[in-house]
Each structure stands twice: as structure tokens, then as C-alpha cells.
Amino acid sequence: MPRRLPPLNALRVFEAAARLESFSAAADELCVTHGAVSRQVGQLEAWLGHNLFERRGRRVVLTAPGRAYLSEISAALDRIALATNEQLRVTRQQIIKVNAPTTFALRWLLPQLSNFQLTNPAVEIRLTTSDEPIERLRDECDVAIRGGEQKAAGYVVNEFLSEVRLPVCSPKVLESHPIHDVSDLAHHTLLHTTTYPGLWAEWLAACGNPRLAVRHSQQLDHFYLTLQAAIDGLGIAMGPTALVALDVEEGRLVFPFDGPALPAWRYCSYVHHARLEDPAINTFLTWLRELGHRFSRNA
User: Fold this and answer.
1) How far apart are CA 186 and CA 202, in angstroms?
2) Which of 16, 184, 241, 245 stands the most exposed, by the fewest C-beta atoms within 10 Å?
3) Domain HTH lysR-type, which positions (predicted)?
4) Which option is the CATH number for 8-92: 1.10.10.10, 3.40.1410.10, 3.10.290.10, 3.30.365.10?
């Protein structure tokens, strides 16, 4: 069955006049004339077949049916307004597709994203992870993040974060076997990652102790697993300073040595030149640069 609806503009005028208890005040709110309000209310009353207001000179007072109608119409218009505002919010919401390496996304970007969303509620970041070459991602992301600069035709590259690698471990590891110099590592387990097999050998050589024998070594196949193993107290990892910075700040990890530091990644953003004028993307890139400045560390 089709809905029987009165003239919708007349409903809006009636609600304003009834809520404000004045045709003049309703005219001011709706930016129309007093006469227009009176005509619209009269049209609605004629459609309904009874009066909604009593005219008392220049004053108007709601009748009993008018009061009952106001409570329903006002609630209905509120629901329409809320639904409309939600649709407008969806329309205004801008989506930025960001692609980043998995460990970087887990250890650095995701923990910071809530701050970006709080200050930029109209921008939604949709994050995916991969190590695909930049040029293969043209239609899949708006901003790509990679450790180290890649050649990508048509893309603008900006470095925003640099880091070094240092040994890192849970404080409880040092409680059982304190570390005062490199030779104390002999009492500890060194954590290795399959994709970075030579880090510990490189660091020990930089310390002048390349043949140090340690109690145990444990290898994991993903770097984020190695860092989690360090947090859980399984041993000591070679930690990129940016990716463990929050854990160090919050006391889950510590650096037992100040150096020597091995060079690590210099993270860059990649945006195709066709997207450079997008205000939301530029807002995100500015945020990346400012945040990266806080966490950057050079050898």
C-alpha cells in the first residue's frame, strides 16, 4: 500500500511553528515570510481536516491533536536529520589506500594510526601489507611505503623515517644475566631472522668480537616474530630502533648497548604524480613526515 503523506514542506513548517509556538519565529528560522508559514499550516490543516492551532489574536496555541502530532512529527524529522547527516558523512569520508611491509605496519604504523584518525575523522586509512614492487600497485593503493628507495616511474618519493639496528631485549632477560660488555652475551640466547641471517655476525664484527660463542641461538622465519620473541624474553634480537621505539618507551624492551649501531632501513612514501593534489593524501604524508621525525635515528 502506498504511504499517505501530507505535503512534506508543510510538515516542516508546522514543526517549526509548533516547536517555537510562533509563526513569526518559524518564519525567521526558515527564512520565509509570516504569510508563507500561515499558508503552509493552513494547507496541512485542510489536508488533515482539523485545526492544529488555535488563533488567539496574534498568538497561536496548539490544539490537543496538534500537540500529539508535534511529538510524532518532531521525532520523525529528527530521525530523518540523523539519517541524512550519516549519509553526508559517508559522502564526505575520504579513503586512502596505504600499502606497507608487514613488520613495519604491525610495529610502527598501526600503533600510530589511531592518533591520525582522531585528528582526521573524515579520512579513512585502508591498510594492506606486501613487499610488491611499487609499479605493480598502481591501482591497488594511493600511498605505498617501502624500506629503501625504489625506482618507480611516475611516482614521487619522499623519505620520512630512518633507523639503525641495535641489540634489544626484555628487561627480565637482564635480570637473570646482566650485560656489562659484549662478552656477557655468551650467557644469552641470540635471536635470528631467516631473512636477515647475518645481522648478529655483522654487529659482533663491528664490536671487534666476531668469534664470540653464545649459549644458544634461535632462528625465526619472520622479523615480527623475532621482535615478539624478544618482548617475551626468549632472547636478544637485533632491533630496528624505529620499530621497537614504542616498546622501549613503554618498558617492554631495552637497549643493553648504545652501540655500535648498524644502518637499517630508510622508509619512503611513494605517491603517483596524478594523486599529488589530493588534500587527504597530502594530509597523510605530512603526518608521516612529522611522526617520522620523532622516531628517526641515524648511525
Assistant:
1) 16
2) 184
3) 6-63
4) 1.10.10.10
